[in-house]
């Protein structure tokens, strides 16, 4: 059962859903349960790698300090983990909503005019 769920999550992360011009924001946020999953779903690979690496590292150190009995450091790392997870959710939501948005601006149509009166 777990293999099937993980296979479906990995399939959703690494596919583009037949070239869709938009992404489902709810699915992007759901995929954030996998470190960097929402970012990979929205085809933003560098932030996905950075977020996944950060979440895994913070989780490792929280587990390490839990095993050592240093609960103050463990709690600190868990708070940072929660912050990164929240950032990941927000980033995945915005990435899904802005997916396919053309960011380029036509600079020839942009002008600034100044008028000085005496």
What is this structure, in a nutshell?
The protein is an all-alpha fold.
Q: Tell me the total number of β-strands.
A: 0
Query: Strand portion, in percent?
Result: under 5%
Q: What order do the helices and strands follow?
A: HHHHH
What oligomeric state do the depicted chains represent? single chain
Helix fraction bin:
55-70%
Termini Cα gap: 78 Å
Radius of gyration: 20 Å
What is the average of the pLDDT values? 80
Low-confidence stretches: none
Broad structural category: mainly alpha
Instruction: Please give the count of helices.
Output: 5
Shape: flat
Major β-sheet profile: none
Q: How many domains would you count in the coordinates?
A: 1
Q: Could you characterize the architecture of this molecule?
A:
The protein has 118 residues and is mainly α. The chain has one domain. 64% of the residues lie in helices and 0% in strands. The chain is built from 5 helices and no strands. Helix 4 runs antiparallel to helix 5. The longest helix is centred in the last third of the chain and has 27 residues. The radius of gyration is 20 Å and the shape is flat. It starts with a helix and ends in a 21-residue tail after the last helix. The mean pLDDT is 80.
Topology record:
Layout: H1 2-14, H2 25-30, H3 37-41, H4 45-68, H5 71-97
């Amino acid at each position: 059962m777990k293999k099937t769920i993980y296979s479906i999550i990995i399939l959703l992360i690494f596919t583009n859903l037949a070239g869709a011009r938009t992404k489902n924001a709810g699915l992007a946020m759901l995929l954030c349960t996998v470190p960097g999953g929402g970012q990979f779903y929205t085809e933003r690979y560098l932030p996905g790698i950075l977020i996944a690496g950060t979440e895994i590292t913070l989780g490792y150190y929280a587990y390490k300090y839990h095993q050592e009995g240093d609960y103050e450091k463990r709690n600190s790392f868990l708070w940072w983990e929660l912050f990164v997870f929240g950032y990941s959710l927000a980033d995945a939501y915005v990435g899904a909503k802005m997916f396919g948005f053309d960011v380029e601006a036509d600079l020839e149509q942009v002008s600034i005019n100044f008028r000085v009166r005496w």
